[in-house]
Write a structure and sequence with these properties.
Layout lengths: L19 H12 L10 H8 L6 H32 L3 H28 L3 H5 L1 H4 L1 H13 L13 H22 L1 H12 L4 H31 L6 H25 L9 H18 L14 H5 L12 E7 L2 E5 L1
Antiparallel strand pairs: 1-2
Helix pairs in contact: 1-4, 1-10, 3-4, 3-8, 3-9, 4-10, 7-11, 8-10, 8-11, 9-10, 9-12, 11-12
């Protein structure tokens, strides 16, 4: 059995399993279960209402990130439910995709919860993908990257179609979830480090933990398709992917400058861009491509922000087992 191009109508014959790593991701996701309502927002409400705690630049940063993520999470859910699940036909991978779809629903609910709790104008927040150019450009880029797999006539049969599917998976997992989310994560967690909007920041931490698993699973799917169809991974195609990732970094850099033009207590937009470049190199290496930027991580505290056990960096190492949510084993 291969990861794509199996029967789509047979019962979900999940045993025996071919890809045990997919089962590991499923169990890890279950162990990290959470809901936004579990997190206290009382202090956030007080700070949001205060005319002195948050300055105008911090408020802009918060609003822009809520605006981007509120629609980006629903876009990722659409990718999973309407496209990826249809074409990734391996049963245990589909089992994880169902779990991921649930987590995307939790993330979408998180931004509903934040908007309701803080008393924000939903039209302003949920229309930023139209009204804010730096957000619109990112969303438009991903929609264009992943349009093939939304075509109801698209199939993954034949070399060119498999390559096109891989292209769209990279657009979704590596670029959308692996690059476009990370400047926003760093911004909100930098604010949390200053003891501002801690409840929102904590929710971003949980989302980031989920997304680290989504990204790792997606990269394993991508690498498996490459291994099972080596003829599609041509030098020309690799160069095309590198160019797409460089464009994504450029768009995320524009978003960072637009969202954080004045910085946050010594942290400026240039550092957020450097962080995105560092992240992009990690993504390139994860799918077997060479680094482009060769940057150091300017925010080493981001590792601790996503460590459940404080042992390893959650989104830069690979989870191999959850026994309970705080007891992890790691591959180096």
């Amino acid at each position: 059995m291969t990861i794509i191009n199996n029967s789509k109508t047979d019962p979900n014959k999940i045993l025996p399993m071919t890809y045990l790593w997919s089962r590991e991701y499923y169990l890890s996701g279950v162990a990290n279960n959470w809901t936004p309502q579990e997190i206290s927002m009382q202090k956030d409400v007080e700070q949001w209402k205060s005319p002195v705690v948050l300055n105008e630049h911090e408020r802009l940063l918060i609003m822009r990130n809520l605006g981007f993520f509120s629609t980006a999470e629903s876009l990722t859910a659409n990718n999973i439910v309407l496209a990826v699940y249809r074409h990734v036909t391996n049963p245990e991978c589909r089992q994880y995709l169902l779990r991921q779809a649930f987590e995307e629903a939790i993330h979408t609910d998180t931004f509903i919860f934040c908007c309701d709790t803080l008393g924000l104008d939903p039209d302003e927040v949920y229309n930023m993908y139209i009204t804010v150019p730096s957000i619109k450009q990112k969303d438009d880029f991903v929609v264009e990257l992943t349009k093939s797999i939304f075509d109801p006539t698209f199939v993954t049969l034949g070399r060119e179609n498999i390559r096109r599917f891989l292209h769209d998976l990279i657009g979704y997992y590596v670029i959308m979830e692996g690059i476009f989310f990370y400047a926003g994560f760093a911004m909100m967690l930098a604010l949390k480090r200053q003891n501002k909007m801690v409840g929102v920041g904590e929710q971003f931490e949980y989302i980031m933990r989920d997304e680290s698993l989504h990204l790792a699973f997606g990269c394993d799917v991508i690498n498996t398709i490459k291994a099972e169809n080596p003829e599609i991974w041509t030098q020309e195609f690799q160069s095309e992917i590198v160019a797409l990732i460089k464009k994504a970094v450029e768009l995320e850099g524009a978003y960072a400058h637009d969202t954080c033009p004045k910085g946050l207590l010594g942290i400026n937009a240039a550092q957020f861009v450097e962080y995105v470049e560092y992240i992009a190199d990690r993504r390139l290496e994860r799918i077997g491509l060479p680094k482009v930027y060769d940057k150091e991580n300017p925010f080493p505290w981001m590792s601790q922000a996503t460590d459940l056990s404080k042992e390893k960096n959650f989104f830069e190492t690979r989870v191999t087992e959850y026994r309970v949510a705080g007891a992890l084993k790691w591959d180096e």
